Amino acid sequence: MQTSFTADQLKDPDTRESNQILRTCVHCGFCTATCPTFALLGDELDSPRGRIYLIKDMLESGRPATEEVVRHVDRCLSCLSCMTTCPSGVHYMHLVDHARHYIEDTYRRPWPERLLRRVLARVLPHPGRFRLALLAARLARPFAGLIPGGSMTAQRLRAMLRLAPARLPAADPAAAPQVHRAEGERRGRVALLTGCAQQVIAPEINAATIRLLTRMGIEVVVTAGQGCCGALNHHMGDHDPAMALARANIAAWHAELAGEGLDAVVVNASGCGTTVKDYGFMFREEPAPWKERAEAISAIALDISELLVKFGYAPKREAPAGLAVAYHAACSLQHGQKIVAPPKQLLARAGFKVKEPAEGHLCCGSAGTYNLLQPEIAGQLRERKLGNLARTGADLIAAGNIGCLTQLAGDALPVAHTVELLDWMAGGPEPAAVQAALARRRAA
């Protein structure tokens, strides 16, 4: 693709990077075949190729973002399926992140949307605030159907209440800053990202991760000072808060790396893992020592499935005969991190019958805050995904990302994080999703 940025524009590192990305695109259109929003809407401007043209024109002109550009970029899930499909290696993730930052700097959204985005950016990354918000939402949830109108604001309010869990689990003390010692001889030492929303909605995921790793001889450090990875803010174009959250994590993990050392920073929410692995890029223009520290953290960041393969996960009990698991590949895992086989191999090694749904490359509609900001499209993708998962004939769904688990939970098959199932087969407690699945099987 030909570009015409001025020399002054190219002095900006983000514009310089976007210029290189744009020049990589050859207009082939392969990306349209695997784009969820294009599959649903059939609009070229709701495909990666169409958005690339809009972004190119916006950045080259230097003009403020228009409503049209904002509408189509906002509809992008950042699922990155286009990056898996692209034969030219177009790094769409960095391009659309730059576009979102530019939009937030130059476009004034309607006030209800500004308010909602500000609330999401200031609440979701902070577990204490998020817990209070969910407690309030739980009280209001029965009245979601009473919110009138078909406006986007009304749809978003209904979506927020619908996604609020009916029961809020107690906080897990294992997620507090501490060192979880390895059982037996220590084989490794890792820092665990406990996250933000996940530790409030599903603390059992971190608990299962810690149990499984310590049982395998891996010391798990929950560092003081770490928190949200910054992804939620980053993908809404909220640049400075995202960098502040990332900087806190880098500082906390670097202290451990420089102290007793770390074999990995392990992440059990794939959306967070994609961002942590991108810290090196995010801090590429930061002064020393942040650039080097960010690169060092990104270099040792691993998804939990990668770590379990590395240290030789092995089950200690047999799965119930014929228990079938439909594996949902989170976009951030299969497209963002290019991790496809390890989770399925681990589940099979644990004794589960692993089934893969049709259209496994398509997003479930969660995508961070997407199911709150674009509830109609997210709802259509959810129904499409649940239909494909149900048709596998599996007993339950396994996934490696809290956003996907939240999106797919409710009125369909029970859902569990992959690590919960692996922990169970290695001696941990039976997950609630398995109990529900076995009860459904007995009742059938």
Describe the SSE topology.
Blueprint: H1 13-24, H2 36-41, H3 48-61, H4 67-74, H5 81-85, H6 92-106, H7 111-123, H8 127-140, H9 152-163, E1 178-180, E2 188-193, H10 197-201, H11 203-215, E3 218-222, H12 231-234, H13 239-258, E4 264-267, H14 270-276, H15 279-282, H16 290-300, E5 301-303, H17 304-310, E6 324-327, H18 331-336, H19 341-349, E7 353-355, H20 370-373, H21 375-390, E8 396-399, H22 402-408, E9 415-417, H23 418-425, H24 432-443
Helix pairs in contact: 1-6, 3-6, 11-23, 13-16
Observed structural traits:
about 450 residues, alpha/beta, Fumarate Reductase Iron-sulfur Protein, Chain B, domain 2, Rossmann fold, 4 domains, five-stranded mixed beta sheet, four-stranded parallel beta sheet, 24 helices, 9 strands, globular
